[in-house]
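Q: Could you predict the 3D structure of Protein UNUSUAL FLORAL ORGANS?
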Amino acid sequence: MSKKNPDHLPSSSSTFPSDQHPHTPTQTTLDTSIWCRLPPSLFDRILHFLPAPAFFRLQLLSCRIRSLLFSPSFLHSHILLSPLRPSFAFFPNSNPSSLYLLDPTSLSWHHLPLAPLLPSHIPVAPAASSAGLLCFVSLTAGPKTLLLINPLSKLIANLPQNPTPRLSPAIGLSVGPSSLSVVIAGDNLISPFSVKNLSSEMFFADTTPTFSPWSLSSPLPRLCSIEPNRMVFSSGKFYCMSVSPYAVLVYDQVSNSWSHIQPPMRRYLRSPSLVEFGEGVGLVAAVEKNRLNVPRSVRVWSLQPCGHSWVEISRMLVDVHARFYENCGGGESTGAFECAGHGGLIAFVAGTNSEVLLFDMPRREWRWAPSCRYPCEGGLKVFAYEPRIATPAIGLLTMAS
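A: Sure. Here are the predicted structure tokens for Protein UNUSUAL FLORAL ORGANS:
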């Protein structure tokens, strides 16, 4: 695990500039004439309660503040006291070394350059995220190199390379306060020119002196075709999509077994994706039943506590869908789109368009986010992300190495 010098933590005027929409809630400006008069102990205590995005707006970071932010006592207190602030991380398809962070609360954008943190000798791409950490995977065929990064603290850690050669597997990441789990599934390279969905591997680390290296889990269900995208984690289980036909595959860590769930309306789904939804799992997909005279729509379902049935939560409003449909490229069917869920929010991006649509589940509200003003050539890839200065689980990889 490595760490950049904390003296290089930038202010919002450099590495973390924010773009705010004129119609979004007003952000409070930090009045230095007030802050400098506060007793140091009170000032430090206030910092403990600030959400991580608030540090983006600090215009001046003294050496004392920078050293405080990375002191063990501050990080421990910040974990306990700082409010959680679900956000969304967007990566341009043309440049995965740039991270654009959307704060749904303030509807502001922040730019976090990642190039200094990523390896230059192998191509990598974002694959998963959990609890303040981003997971990048090597794109070359063969055993995979996985890299965990905290873009705020600039902590970096490598996982041991997995033993099974794969092409473009699905990857799941679950990070807790004192443990982390990684699952790689599908796209086994059985020859230099052929892949087959045969197996999955799991890596687990916690605070015990010993650790679990990569180990093969139970075989994948027969006739599955796993999509090379992220997994969703909920209540000790990883979920991912299988295509042709559509199915939801479930890996149970406790029983070390795979199973599958039938998705709703699987004959008429387009671009189905799994999302984290509150404390559970949701499924988002375009629905097209032209011959049955049912209007095109994008719908949201929630997996019920029984783990086998789905309930429709909402569907995109007609005027919203018309704009989203155009962003997808129009045509006879709704084109591909990206989405990710975090808390009670789902973020959508369509095709090569950079417009972001947000669905607020508690309010059943669809709204467009302010445009991202950073370069977005080729469209965006979106992940749920929770900015955290302290991510103690990344230190477990030092114990596991």
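Q: Anything worth pointing out?
A: DSSP finds six helices and 28 strands in the chain.
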